[in-house]
């Protein structure tokens, strides 16, 4: 299985530490919290932007389907009117024994 302990780094900074096990001062803990808060704000801003774009895209699709439905229903009315006119024309036509 994967080893869960952080690997030691040769660099002086950006090494992973466990704040609960390390003897950190209150200033260091405060700084860590500030950095984590800034990272969280940055991630949530990106996520919020992505959510807004997704919401607008879904809304546009819904409105498009809604508009198309109204358009197609209005086309059906035209077809119904044409059918009614055809029925009236058939009724007015001369009746023969074949009809």
Could you describe the 3D structure shown?
The protein has one helix at 26-92. By secondary structure, the protein is mostly helical. The N and C termini lie far apart (86 Å).
Name the descriptors.
99 residues, mainly alpha, 0% strand
Radius of gyration using CA atoms only: 36 Å
Give helix and strand order, one letter per element, not per position. H
Largest sheet: none
The helix content is 55-70%
Query: Cα distance, first to last residue?
Result: 86 Å
How many distinct beta strands? 0
What's the mean pLDDT score?
81
Number of helices: 1
The oligomeric state of the chains shown is single chain
Uncertain runs: none
Tell me the structural class: mainly alpha
Proportion in β-strands:
under 5%
The 3D shape can be described as rod-shaped
Summed up, what is this model?
With 99 residues, the chain is mostly helical. The protein has one helix spanning 26-92.
């Amino acid at each position: 299985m994967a080893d869960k302990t952080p690997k030691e780094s040769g660099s002086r900074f950006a090494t992973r530490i466990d704040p609960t096990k390390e003897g950190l001062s209150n200033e260091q803990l405060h700084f860590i919290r500030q950095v984590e808060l800034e990272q969280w704000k940055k991630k949530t801003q990106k996520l919020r932007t992505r959510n807004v774009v997704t919401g607008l895209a879904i809304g546009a699709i819904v409105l498009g389907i809604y508009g198309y439905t109204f358009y197609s229903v209005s086309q059906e009315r035209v077809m119904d009117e044409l059918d009614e006119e055809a029925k009236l024309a058939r009724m007015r036509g001369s009746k023969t024994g074949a009809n």
